[in-house]
Amino acid sequence: MTDLFVSPPTPTSKPSGTQAATRTGNGRPSALSRLMAEQAQLPPTLGRVAAYVNAHPEEVIYQTITELATAAGVVESTVTRLCRRLGFSGFHAFKIALSGDVLTSVGETAVGETDPLSLAAHQVTQAVQGTRHLVDPAALERVAAAIADARRVDVAGQSNSGLSAQFLANKLARVGVMAIAHTDPHLAAVAAATQRTGGVVIGLTRSGSTIDTVQTLKLAAARGAFTVAVTHRASSPVTRYAREVLSTASPEAPLAGGAISSLVSQVLIIEALYLTLLPRLPGADALLRETAESVVEKKY
What we know:
- The chain is an alpha/beta fold and about 300 residues long.
- It has 14 helices and five strands.
- Helix 3 packs across helix 5 and helix 10 runs parallel beside helix 13.
- The N terminus is likely disordered.
- One of its GO terms (molecular function) is carbohydrate derivative binding.
- Pfam families: HTH_6, SIS.
């Protein structure tokens, strides 16, 4: 009897020229060399993305998948298809490789700063000033009003944005707001799924493309919660599910991995939101005093 389930033959072909000759001297895959090797064979839509990346590699490493797709005149799935055709798991993996091609060193700057302290201070100053000009005071007022009336506030963030999420939840708790920070994506999803109209869910993601945070806001929006995105990218996946967007100024290359500018800009937004909220909470002063007294014995 003929076997209906036949194992596929073991591949015997050698790696293509694209795969064999597209690594940098340190062994990392070179994004630009892969593009050049494949470009002539790409279908028109993938070719548009490749042409844009080749012409603007320094810009692409700072873009979201949404921004690149818009600039190239394609849909986001086309960008993903190109990245996978080039041997990368997705757009973020491609950007990391592209950063290795474009940047000579992590954190390089054109401002002339040479010592680490001056460079860090410059990054902080730029983040504070940039965020100050980007934030919409009216949006802060609307978010503060929603928090003041909320039955529960869930704050979600991954990696360094998780630190900011905890900071925000702690500040809200000090003034009597039922706020919970979620750095575990599974617990964030559960929290979002149990939200309803009248609740608030805040997602912090510098890139606007952190899948777990995007999915958390998507779930919360579907449940009718008031959703807020704190992000550097106004045109990014997370903003599709945010009723309000609070913008930060923190450009960061993929290899930077949590530059201080990202954290500082998020903390500035949090502090501005907190100060906007306080006048809306009649008992805030008393609660601040009581919560301060509650930890007196924890300090010398």
